[in-house]
Amino acid sequence: MKLYKLSLALLLGLGTMTSCEDKLELTNPNEQTTGTFGFNADDLEECVIAAYNHTRMEGSYARVGYTIDVVRGDEAWNSSQVWYLSFDDLNTPFTDDTAMWPWREWYYTINVCNFILSRTGGDDAQLAENMKRIKGQALFIRGLAYYNLAGYYQNPPLITDYAGYSTLDGLYGKNSSYDEVLDQVEKDFSEAMALLPSRDEGGEWSKGRATCGAAAGYYARTLMQRHKYSEALTVLKDIIAKKYGTYRLMDNYGDNFREGPEYENNDESLFEIQYLDYGSQGTDDEWTPVNTSPNATQGSAIESNFGPAKYGGWADISASPWLYNLFKQERTTAGKLDPRLYWTIGTYEVDWEGFEFGNVGYNQPMTATETVVTNDINGGLPIAKWTNLRTGLYDKVVTGLHDGINLRMMRYSDVLLRAAECENEINGPTQQAIDWINEVRSRAGLADLKLSDFTTKDKLFEQIANVERPKEFGCEFGRGLDLLRWGFYYSADRLQQLKEHGTFRKTLTDVKDPVNYSEVGTDATVKSSYDSYYQGHEFLPVTQTLLNKNPNLKGNSANDGTDNSAYFSGKGWTVHPVVDLTK
Fold it and tell me: For a Cys staple, 526 with which of 23, 82, 519, 575, CB 3.0–4.6 Å?
């Protein structure tokens, strides 16, 4: 017993002596820092989830960041004539801080990705499998962020070193050129392609995470932004050949625009933004940049922007009369309207009796005698995509961040039509390009195109750019970026064509009727969005708020009114002339 007491006393004494020499260091798990966090896969997995979360916020894809590109396109217009008006009119002033929201969101995203990448090392071959996947996702999301920043702001600062945030020089970065940014985007997507599994692996990789197929699709998109058609076609052919996973067109076009696990992350989707279905969400509408509530709704507000006032929507954006009448110009082989019209524009049509959910708007019957418009003051054709106008699920718009329909950011139909475009640019017109187009048309029940009808590359381009793509992707994100890469702002006949496509009549009746650009100026109700285009405003300006905060930052072409046609032509790129497809 005495020996035991002595040993205990000795141990206690040694412990006391040791504690005098070495302080006891404890880490508070609730006060993690970059010095203690992020050194294992579990920590970095949390960061990956945070990066995905930033893609779902108001300035990225939950509202403003998505809809800005929609209204930049010629198949949609701002029917509220308030929100998004300057983006629709392509004359956003540098004092409009709403133009800063995508910048804010994507740089939050980049910061998280840069932190992840600072912990994953430079040698991919030395990484464990789970770390490869973590790094691949960070590269994909960072590439996505800079792809959008370049497409919106032209020359944003390129920041890829997380350590640089520790100094003001790193935090307040200087502008990088458009090419420098897209060089990095190509590099990020290319590396992600090699690190990520395909959707065929199943599990999380078939339920919304970035895959090698998503990276390959966006890599091809980025290459095409700079007319690298041969390189892009190689990647697109590999996707079609299932090198990066198995993709196919869904039998029902409408399955790409519904919520629910039986429709979302389907076989056609290369990448989509994940939102919780309505009814499974939280209660807090947390607008950015907070979004920290454990009860956040985790939905988007796209439906609120698109939804007609009659059903409780904010009535901000409508489909153009040009897009509606484009659908009406061609019927299926069965003599019916193109079914894509049903899911794109919410109008009453005789053909919809007995089709899908019939002539309904939020489960309320539409009639031939009542014109449902988007905005109760300015009219407009209601957009059905990303809303529940046609899904049969809900009887009204629940405004705010409650839309639970996943945004399909890239679909297999885009792969096919882009492959056709690249093939046409390199070798066109060819039967291979026609075959890829016909695969998309066949799903809609339309007759096959014939190569003999397209005697020139320019004519087939016209068919792709102004018939096939608008009908397949009308009122979706991406048209604004297409107009940039095609150079439509740098050609008098193409700019005139945009003016004609973007013409609409502010009226509560006759919203389906074609509107002629010649009526602008003679009819006070008729307007064209592109009439107010200011040179250089194919991009968004760098806002004065950002310029004030960052002394190293300069504006872009939208700030200075710079003509970008010299850059475009200086690359050796050409704008396809307008071709009359009826001849």
Answer: 519
CA dihedral 457, 462, 467, 468 (to 10 degrees): 30
Task: Please work out, in degrees rounded to the nearest 5, the angle formed at the alpha carbon of residue 262 by the alpha carbons of 259 and 264.
Answer: 50
pLDDT in tens, 25-35: 666 767 777 77
Looking up tokens 């079914």, which residue turns up?
339
Please list the ranges in the chain whose pLDDT falls under 70. Answer: 1-27, 29, 168, 288-291
H or E stretch at 292: none
Question: Cβ contacts of residue 321 below 8 Å, gap of 6+?
Answer: 381, 503, 504, 505, 511, 512, 513, 514, 515
Residue from 414, 470, 532 nearest 75 by CA: 470
Percent of the chain with pLDDT strictly greater than 70:
94
Contacts 24+ apart (CB under 8 A), 234-237: 236/415, 236/418, 236/419, 236/422, 237/419
Strand partners, 520: 523
Amino acid 122: pLDDT: 82
Residue with tokens 């599990």: 203
Tell me: cis bond preceding 514? Omega within 30 of 0 counts: no
Q: At how many degrees (to 10) do helices 178-195 and 212-225 cross? A: 160
The confidence score (pLDDT) of residue 35 equals 79
pLDDT at 8: 34
The DSSP annotation for 487-551 comes to TGGGSHHHHHHHHHHTEEE-BSS-TTS---GGGBTTBTTEEEGGGGPPTTTTSPPPPHHHHHH-T
Q: Which residues of 558-567 are buried (b: 16+ CB within 10 A; e: fewer)?
A: bbeebebeeb
Where is 406: in which H helix or E strand?
A: none
Cα 422 from chain centroid (whole Å): 21
pLDDT at residue 165, rounded to an integer: 77
Question: What residues contact 582, with CB distance under 8 A and at least 6 apart?
Answer: none
Q: Hey, what are 172's tokens? A: 């307040």
* DSSP states along 434-470: HHHHHHHHHHTTPPPP-GGG--SHHHHHHHIIIIIHH
pLDDT tens digits along 134-180: 999 999 999 999 999 999 999 999 999 998 877 767 778 899 999 99
Please name the amino acid found at residue 157: P
State the Cα–Cα distance between residues 7 and 3, nearest whole angstrom: 6
The residues, any chain, with a CB within 8 Å of residue 7's CB and separated by 6 or more, are none
